[in-house]
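Help wanted!
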Amino acid sequence: MVTVDTDNAGAPSPGAPARPPLPGGRFAGDGSIGGRLLKIALLGLVTALGVWAVLPLYVAGNWWGIGLAVAVVVLVYWIYLSKRTVPAKYLLPGVLFLTAFQILPVLYTMSTSVTNLSDGHRGDKEQAIAAIEAFSVTRDPDSPEYVLTVATTGDAATGELAFLLTDGQGNAHVGTDEGLEDLPRAEIDPSSGKVTEAFGYTILTPTEVNARSDELQEFAVPTESGAGIRSSGLSSAFEGSATRVYDEDCDCVTDTESGVVYLADDERGAFYSEEGRRLAQGWQVGVGLDNFGRFLLNPTFASSFFSILLWNIAFAASVTFLVFVVGLAVALTLHVPRLRGKTFYRILVVLPYAMSSLAMYLLWRDMFNTDFGLFNRMLGLQVDWLGDAWSARTAVILANVWLGYPYMFLVATGALQAIPRELGQAAQIDGAGPWQAFRHVTLPLLMVAMTPILIATFAFNFNNFNAVWLISRGGPFSPENPTAGATDLLITYTYRLAFNEATSQYGYAAALSVMIFPRPTRSPSPSPPPGTGTRRRCR
Amino acid sequence: MTMDASAPVRGSHRPGGAARFALWSRRLGWRHAVMWLVVAFAIFPVLFVVSAALNPLGTLSSAQLWPTGASLANAVDLFENTPFTTWYGNSLFFALSNAAVTVLLSALAAYAFSRMRFKGRRVGLIGLLVIQMFPQFLAIVAIYLMFSNIGEYYPAIGFDTRWGLLLVYLGGALSINTWLMKGFFDTVPKELDESAQMDGASHAQVFFRIMLPLVTPVLAIVGLLVFISTINEFLMASVFLRDTDAKTLGLGLYQLVASQRNANFGMFAVGAVMLSLPTLAVFWFLQRYITEGLTSGAVKG
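Answered by r_m:
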């Protein structure tokens, strides 16, 4: 992103004050011995990391990945050994992280948003065909049988499954969802025929196998000519022929039992029969702007999208406004010399801001609980606060005002102290009442300092995921539209689509993210600086 | 409203008791009344969570605004029934390491932007602002998909690992904070580092020996902000950390009251207080730390 050319270092550039070049170049000196040793050590660390990164890529034969890793290491060496790349030495570490984990994901989001990527549409077409054929394997009378040992290449609970298979001759094979291979260096228990140890595989215990029995049911090892190996029980497997066979000539899958033909639909990324029934395993295809069209044109999606957008704006605007009013009112109340207990008030008033916001959102949710919540018990009510659309909205806003006003109070206090008292006194001499003086003298001056902060607060609350998710999870949901809740923000709606539904619709969720992007948003990290500049200014 | 307080008391005679009270309540008394209301609003949830943490019964339905008893039963439950120390350790790990590395990366970049002139400087500065329009957490879908691939190659930085999530957090290291720092760096007089260079200091020595000590206030502020936001981060962490032992305290507390809301509330309250303690400490630190601009008067004449 940043092109660097240090020949210009020290020379004035447009917008920068002109400065005389220093003797011996902009930055003279060679640095200390300790600094050099540290530099060598850090470069060594980068090299080690590079080697660590290349090894798994080499095993998997991913040459693009290797190229990228080598390029990064070479770039690091060039920048830190050259004398002409001084600014880049300071920018590179941050820019590398920024590129890898912010810019690339954003670009990837954009490219995902024009695909149908979701559960059932994850891989390419070949993988989908292999999966369809393998899943349809049925047992032939003369099909070979294997002794089965279930193993994984990764974590016992989540890693990819692999079948370690011992055939009638006592030879071991390994079957993954990519196919069957020989496994020469496996240790086999002679009595049961099970594999007891194999390099690179973790063998699952019976309990662990049981925990993943659902996955096991669906797991099949494709073999040549449309056949596949499936498990029957936990310790045996059989090879059978597929009843659903792909034919390249007609680009279709034929079910040999029922005779139904499923034609490939390359636009929708799945096989469809003439009656419109589709096979569960599809593949990822580009769908152009369909995902965007879906929430703009499809009536159900469009109405949820626009009602969520409307509430999202209303939420951010009302929280910003209320927080500003309350914070400013408190600041004005305390803005008077010789008020006894001012420090005491200040500490207590700022307290909500110093508490952990995550825990406090959960606390507010529990205070609104119908059966056990504090509000219902203290007021003797039985109101389902979070069950009704408007009371849930009020609850969410109230909790956010509680958490947000102390910051406005700090900022407003600083801004008030920066306004010279003489201005107010002059207005008073001119006959202005307290309200007129505030309205026409103090407030305009205040707004100069506060406007950027109000915009930042609005942007922050526009995407305030925690505020809604932790209190109401976007609910309550109306029976007509169970996907979009009354308090849903766009970000919580997106999150639920991508991670909390029965089928994860990544493509659609990514399209929604793209729609939320172009707004004056702040990064999630800096909640606005609490009383930073203000504190300095007022002393 | 703001100026009547500073208005001189008119008249030379001393008013009587009743008149003095009327004057006091008009000038200051109502302020105390308003402040008591605000304070009540501000502290009642805090009071509630503290008294719930001490509540011997430990249920939501028995928790009162005012402590009904003092018992450590909830704290003992939390330590015995949940991997509380692991969760707390995870939370502090993310918050501390993200704050420390972010401050370092941001300061390095701010130094380059503030003190050096190079091609692409303006583009870089504006680019940083533009990127803020595309906040990282909106790319959560892509990050999830990316890391499900990365995790296959490198299990050490995959899901349920500390390093993976830390890497994602560090992707946001250069942000609006860099601008904040650059602004502060600009206020340090250039004569200071130029005179150090005349004495033969390298650019690295100028940065570490001259600049960093002078900009500690802004380093502290940025560090504390990142610390607070990381310890309260939920979205990324909930996608990344699924395993019970990998969770942060915030995720753990969420899970604790997700199912057994009434029964576990006492444990949750203890956890909520514990989660707030680092934040409170950080605030206390911040209050005392940021006292004056350090460079004022560093260059005289």
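OP: Thanks! One thing I noticed: The longest helix of chain A spans residues 299-334.
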